[in-house]
Design brief:
Blueprint: H1 7-23, H2 26-35, H3 41-49, H4 68-81, H5 83-103, H6 106-117, E1 123-126, H7 136-139, E2 143-146, E3 150-161, E4 168-174, E5 185-191, E6 197-201, E7 212-223, E8 227-228, H8 234-270, E9 272-273, E10 276-277, H9 282-310, H10 316-341, H11 352-364, H12 369-379
Parallel strand pairs: 1-4
Antiparallel strand pairs: 2-3, 3-7, 4-5, 5-8, 6-7, 9-10
Bound molecules: flavin-adenine dinucleotide.
């Protein structure tokens, strides 16, 4: 058993870290949080120019052809610097590139993957609907009708990250209303803009630079070849995208936990009370130790998932666990971090408030902790408990 990264991976981490120090300074990330609803184009291009948008895309399609462990190293550094940047890039790499690599035709791969790698395309994922995200099979109403030479789509999607800026939305819709839901859904590539498709930003508590939208689709026509994968098999095919998404979400949480821990440590060493630094008080050390323990657990679990993925082994149980463990690490880090900073933790002057606002999104999205636990126990052989 070997827990070490390779020399090449260490060098790659250093390269991303240097890029983050230069392009994602505290001031810049704060400016994005206060002024942006998506990653600015010039930053997107800089990240793409370093090859990170195509990290998992095969070399023959213009990518770096690297594995999940490599991708997670890059993603970890980005996530420590900015949750919103991680979210925006994750949507394109995780939903766009990953889905096309798994389900796209050769033509779609040749056309789209090189453009993703170059930073020319952005993607979003349209799964959740106004009636519910956890029980998506019960809530889904969006329909795609086969009109011979095109698909006609009608419905509303809710909470879609980055849909206001995406060039394509990966959309899940009903294609066989009479069939059992799991056997009547299909995945589509909806080009944007499309006539009849409208996005509306939803104001939210955190992750401001990764805007979230309501998306209304009224008689949206898309080409016949924009069906991804097999008609009516979309539910099962989507799992290939959703499991890696859970590892990505776990990494975003880990990024928040590490940033909050770093800031809390620094503050505890500098702030003085009763004649010395507050870092000497045992209870604050215990807070920090608790965060450090959870960070270590989350790190190990996330990279184990990535390693399992690279080894071609199943990782659906571990991915759900990692999502929960890392989310809890971010929660503890943000809450204890605020305690350690005292009054300053509650001000807008320090970044702790942003970690506190950002971490919450990771707890219920893309899957709530409650549902993730339901699934872990079902995967482990207990009766399905949620319907
Ligand atoms: C900021 C943000 C960004 C998002 N980005 C995207 C995106 O890009 N694409 C996309 O498709 N979706 C996205 N989502 C949607 C997200 O995946 C859903 O919010 C999530 O799945 C929960 O669904 P819900 O909000 O409808 O809550 P509900 O499903 O209504 O759940 C409400 C509560 O009930 C609990 N609950 C429900 N059923 C059970 C059960 N059987 N057992 C135990 N507890 C249960 C849940 O855990 C939760 O606590 C985003 C959401 C937000 C807020």
């Amino acid at each position: 058993m070997d827990f070490a990264f390779t020399e090449q991976q260490d060098l790659m981490r250093q390269q991303v870290r240097r890029m983050c120090e230069k392009e994602l300074s505290r001031d810049y990330v704060r400016w994005m949080d206060e002024n942006c609803d998506f990653v600015p184009d010039e930053l997107w291009k800089k990240i793409a120019d370093l090859g990170y948008m195509g990290i998992g895309i095969p070399e023959k399609f213009g990518g770096m052809g690297m594995g999940m462990v490599d991708a997670m190293i890059v993603y970890e550094e980005l996530a420590i610097a900015s949750t919103a940047v991680g979210l925006c890039i994750g949507a394109t790499v995780g939903f766009g590139a990953k889905t096309i690599m798994g389900l796209g035709s050769e033509k779609q791969k040749q056309e789209l993957l090189p453009r993703i790698a170059k930073g020319e395309l952005k993607f979003s994922m349209g799964l959740t609907e106004p009636g519910g995200g956890t029980d998506i099979l019960g809530a889904i109403k969006t329909k795609a009708e086969d009109k011979g030479d095109h698909w006609l789509i009608n419905g509303t999607k809710m909470f879609i990250t980055g849909a206001h800026k995406s060039d394509y939305m990966v959309l899940i819709a009903i294609t066989d209303p009479a069939a059992k839901r799991t056997k009547g859904l299909s995945i589509f590539l909806v080009p944007q803009p499309s006539e009849g498709l409208e996005t509306k930003l939803i104001p939210k508590v955190g992750c401001h630079a990764a805007g979230t939208n309501e998306v209304v689709l009224e008689d949206v026509k898309i080409p016949k070849e924009n069906l991804l994968g097999t008609k009516n098999n979309g539910w099962f095919e989507l799992l290939g995208t959703l499991n890696p998404e859970r590892i990505g979400t776990a990494m975003l949480s880990l990024g928040i936990a590490k940033a909050a821990f770093r800031d809390a440590m620094q503050y505890a060493k500098e702030r003085e009370a009763f004649g010395g630094p507050i870092s000497r008080f045992q209870i604050l050390q215990h807070y920090l130790a608790d965060i450090a323990i959870e960070i270590e657990c989350a790190t190990d679990l996330i990279y184990k998932c990535a390693w399992l993925s690279d080894a071609g082994k199943p990782f659906h149980i571990e991915a759900s666990m990692a999502k929960i463990v890392a989310g809890r690490a971010s929660e503890k880090a943000a809450i204890y971090g605020m305690e350690i900073l005292g009054g300053y933790g509650y001000t807008m002057e320090y970044d702790m408030q942003r970690y506190f606002r950002d971490y919450k999104q990771m707890i219920f999205s893309p899957i709530s902790d409650e549902m993730a636990k339901n699934m872990i126990m079902q995967f482990m052989g207990l009766p399905k408990s949620w319907s």
